[in-house]
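Per your request, structure below.
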């Protein structure tokens, strides 16, 4: 049996975290919201059933460091990087580190939902393939 998939949202700004969580919940996603990379790491394990949405600027460990750490633990886990302070170099760095996608704030709701859907579909396929093996 395949696991239920979650969206692990990592955002330090309470208003943005609430708004993005509500957007995703209204679209039917099960959302786990965290205010820091350290809190998110407590929830991630090699077979984490879902995807991550990670802000770049976080207190303590930043989002790119979190991405690299998660990629070492579970390379198949899709991580979507979001930032309000992005540039081309940062986007390239995130993609080279293994990000599934890179979004700029403010992220339109439709784009956030569609990107999360595609990432969850990829994660679901990875679980189905592992199940078949």
């Amino acid at each position: 049996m395949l696991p239920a998939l979650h969206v692990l949202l990592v955002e330090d700004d309470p208003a943005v975290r609430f708004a993005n969580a509500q957007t995703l919940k209204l679209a039917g996603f099960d959302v786990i919201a965290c205010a820091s990379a350290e809190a998110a790491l407590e929830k991630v394990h090699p077979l984490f059933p879902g995807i991550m949405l990670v802000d770049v600027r976080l207190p303590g460990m930043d989002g790119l460091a979190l991405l690299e750490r998660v990629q070492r633990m579970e390379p198949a886990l899709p991580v979507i990087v979001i930032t309000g302070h992005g540039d081309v170099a940062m986007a390239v760095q995130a993609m080279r580190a293994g990000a599934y996608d890179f979004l700029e704030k403010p992220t339109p709701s439709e784009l956030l939902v569609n990107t999360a859907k595609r990432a969850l579909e990829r994660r679901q396929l990875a679980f189905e393939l592992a199940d078949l093996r």
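Residues 6-132 form a domain with the Rossmann fold fold (CATH 3.40.50.2300).

Regards,
D.
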